Amino acid sequence: MAQLLSSLIVTITSPTSGSTVKDTIPVNASVGVIGFLTVSRVDFYVDGNSYSVSWNTTSTNNGSHTLTAVATDNLGVRWNSDPVTVTVSNGPPPDTTPPSVTINQAAGQADPTSASPINFTAVFSEPVSGFTGSDVTISGTAGGTKTVTVSGGPSTYTVAVSGMTTSGTVIATIAAGVASDAAGNGNTASTSTDNSVTFNVADTTPPTVTINQAAGQADPTSAAPITFTAVFSEPVSGFTGSDVTISGTAGGTKTVTVSGG
Questions:
Q1: If DSSP codes are grouped into helix, strand and coil, which group holds residue 141?
Q2: Is 256 found in the same domain as 240?
Q3: How many domains does the chain have?
Q4: Is residue 1 in a domain?
């Protein structure tokens, strides 16, 4: 009979019912003893799952959860507290994903080309900061001291390369860790489908030309036409009969036709 007059009164003292919690919080309970019983242990539960005194709320989903405390007396009898309902409201998990980046020939970039600059397009998977021309690695066989300028952003950038002095390839890549997203994650190394452009030094040397009697042309002659051979130092276009000047003492209205080439 004395055992029936003994009990434990278990109460969760923090957090309070209806509160909103996040991160790791302490969970506290008080145990009132009526009669001769003693407390051998107190267990804490969240939605029926056992937890230690410190509750890492990030291990549960956001939303409503029920806390209970269970005290066990020296006879092994379990005594439950009234439930306490709290709302877990943790922010999104931290961003630990590095931005990726591709670099390829810019749309409309001629390949091969004799024009400078050569343009590439760098596209990051998310907005980044800290990306400059010095972060672009230029390789290839074209000679010269290359200069790289970057414009645009924060996700898509135009990369302009100038300074080529001899013919060859110009290849652009971006190393890992040169630009960062808002969470501070450095980018991964670039990937590409076409990041090479062939540069040809512009030809500024004019072609030379000789014009002489054609082989087999009789001189003097009474036959028409009189044939000459014009030889250019390299292939040309646009050469017609109107480009040949005829002079001398022979009379008449001269007509010039051009063939070959």
A1: coil
A2: yes
A3: 3
A4: no
Q: Are residues 109 and 183 in the same domain?
A: yes
Tell me the two tokens of residue 95: 């961003």
Give the residues across from 105 on adjacent strands: 120
DSSP state of 146: -
In angstroms, rounded to a whole number, what is the distance separating the alpha carbons of residues 96 and 94?
Answer: 6
Q: What's the whole-model pTM score?
A: 0.63
68 lies in the same domain as 120: no
Supply the DSSP string of 229-246, one letter for each residue.
EEEESS------GGG---
Residue 8 and residue 34 in contact, taking contact as beta carbons nearer than 8 Å: yes
pLDDT, residue 3, reads: 42
Residue 217, number of CB atoms within 10 A of its CB: 14
Task: State residue 178's pLDDT score.
Answer: 98
Retrieve residue 246's tokens.
């005829």
Lowest mean pLDDT among 24-33, 135-144, 213-222: 24-33
Q: Is the pLDDT of residue 5 over 80?
A: no
Q: Are 144 and 163 in contact (CB under 8 A)?
A: yes
Do 107 and 193 lie in one domain? The reply is yes
Q: What pLDDT digit, counting tens, does each position of 248-260 carry? A: 999 999 999 999 9
Torsion, CA 171, CA 177, CA 181, CA 185, rounded to 10: 150
Who contacts 98 (Cβ-Cβ below 8 Å, separation ≥6)? 176, 181, 185, 186, 187, 188
Residue 77, domain member (yes or no): yes
Q: Which residue has the tokens 């030309």?
A: 209
